[in-house]
Write a structure and sequence with these properties.
The protein is α/β, with parallel strands linked by helices. Helix content is about 40%, strand content about 20%. The chain has an 8-stranded mixed beta sheet with strand order 5-2-1-6-7-8-11-12, with helices on both faces. It has a 4-stranded mixed beta sheet with strand order 4-3-10-9. Helix 8 packs antiparallel against helix 9 and helix 8 crosses helix 14 (about 345-355). The structure holds nicotinamide-adenine-dinucleotide.
Length: about 400
């Protein structure tokens, strides 16, 4: 019997997944695209192109989803696998829409999960937890861009391997093995969503470099867009190192409190860069040179908008609007529960929240008026570390029960 899969979302990642998975005869792929008029655009595109074409560096793969749906019931009922290929700010909304229609036994996951995905799912789907499994990818496996909406997407680069975690944790090897087979890439099962949240390096790199490049911006347009990764100077490298050190202190503190806890995937930033990009870094002697001489980052620009006078920073871009509420604030919230002080991360967050026109941290605490739009533990009512670790089942000896 064919496996039925639902892909939620209509953007770059959803196009890629829809094309790749629906090219297989043994899968029946449906797309849930409720946003704007995307469902109609997908249907028209697929009709004209006879499916979705995925251009990879070496080949063209053609698939054709069996249905493009605007309604959650038709999209999700009967699916064994539900993939959220969405920016993190859309996860909660889409989960609420599909909650009543998810089939018992389904696996629900996000690519990428970002921080606190499990907190969000366990809150939204709390009535269904005994019937489902949750999983999250550490990153999206591809850099991909739509060429023509509903017709063609291009994979610019694919990661060789990706980490995945699951709840209940015993499902991680099983879900990894199945997705590895479906996506033809190495997928490593990792310990827990706690590890996935703390190990996300985008939460350091993106807000950290935005702060470094623009915290003293005087409001005057720049003549040309600024380089993002290659804009990392000695001062920004020091800031990133300090942010990374604060997360390492949090890791060590948690491992000290809970000797059964082991978080090896939560690596110092410089180690993560070496592991991810070793072949592409010409000079890995310092953190700054690891950014400056990394060919994967070459020429990539900071998010900026063109104005009459030149280019100004785009503070609403995802480097702040996604990485702050759905990544760094989750980690910052865990640090607060653990009593770990994070002065450099707080400096970056205090600046970022002003630029986002939000209030998350006030008087050094996770208690601002916009906390409900984050996935920090405090948003979900956690004020005690032991309770958080136990209820979220982050300790290896904890029996997984719904
Ligand atoms: P995208 O911008 O192409 O996707 C946007 C889609 O999200 C929209 O098309 C819509 O379907 C949905 N959406 C947006 N707002 C919504 C709303 N309010 N309600 C419901 N749906 C809404 O994003 P993407 O490139 O597919 O990326 C998905 C995730 O992967 C993001 O977290 C992104 O940061 C991450 N990522 C992407 C890439 C890449 O190369 N595309 C690389 C690494 C990580």
């Amino acid at each position: 019997m064919n496996t039925q899969i639902t892909i939620c979302g209509g953007g770059n990642a959803a196009h890629t997944l829809a094309g790749l998975l629906s090219s297989r005869q043994d899968l029946s792929v449906q797309v849930y695209a409720p946003f704007g008029n995307e469902a109609q655009l997908w249907q028209e595109g697929i009709q004209q192109n006879n499916g979705i074409t995925v251009n990879t560096p070496t080949s063209k793969i053609q698939g054709r989803p069996s249905a493009i749906c605007r309604g959650p019931s038709a999209a999700v009922a009967g699916s064994q696998l539900v993939l959220l290929a969405l920016p993190a700010f859309a996860h909660e909304l889409i989960l609420k829409q599909i909650a009543a229609h998810i089939s018992p036994g389904a696996w629900i996951g996000a690519l990428p999960a970002r921080g606190g995905f499990d907190l969000c799912v366990r809150e939204v789907l709390k009535e269904r937890l005994s019937e489902i499994s949750i999983f999250g990818f550490q990153t999206l496996p591809w850099a991909c861009r739509i060429q023509e909406f509903g017709k063609q997407v291009t994979i610019l680069g694919a990661k060789e391997q990706v980490d995945l975690t699951a709840w209940p944790s015993g499902m991680a090897p099983i879900i990894s093995a199945r997705l590895q087979e479906l996506l033809s890439m190495t997928i490593n099962p990792t310990a827990s969503f706690l590890s996935l949240t703390l190990a996300d390096t985008g939460q350091l790199i993106h807000p950290g470099i935005m702060y470094g490049l623009f915290h003293d911006w005087n409001g005057q347009p720049y003549d040309k867009p600024r380089l993002f990764y290659q804009g990392v100077d000695a001062g920004i490298a020091t800031l990133l190192q300090q942010m990374s050190d604060e997360i390492q202190l949090l890791r060590a503190t948690l491992e000290g409190y809970y000797p059964c806890l082991d978080l090896p995937a939560v690596r110092p930033l410089v180690d993560w860069l070496k592991l991810s990009y070793q072949a592409n870094i010409a000079d890995s002697s310092t953190l700054q040179s690891s950014f400056a001489t990394n060919s994967s980052y070459s020429g990539l620009l900071a998010p900026m908008q063109k104005t009459d006078g030149g280019f100004i920073p785009d503070f609403q871009a995802r480097y702040l609007s996604e990485d702050v509420p759905y990544n760094l604030l989750v980690t910052r919230g865990i640090a607060e529960l653990a009593g770990v002080s994070t002065p450099v991360i707080d400096k970056v967050l205090s600046w970022a929240q002003k630029r986002l026109e939000k209030e998350y941290l006030t008087s050094g605490k996770m208690q601002g008026a916009d906390l409900h739009n984050t996935r920090s533990p405090q948003r979900y009512g956690f004020t005690n570390l032991d309770q958080f670790m136990q209820e979220m089942q982050y300790l290896p000896s904890t029996k997984n029960t719904a």
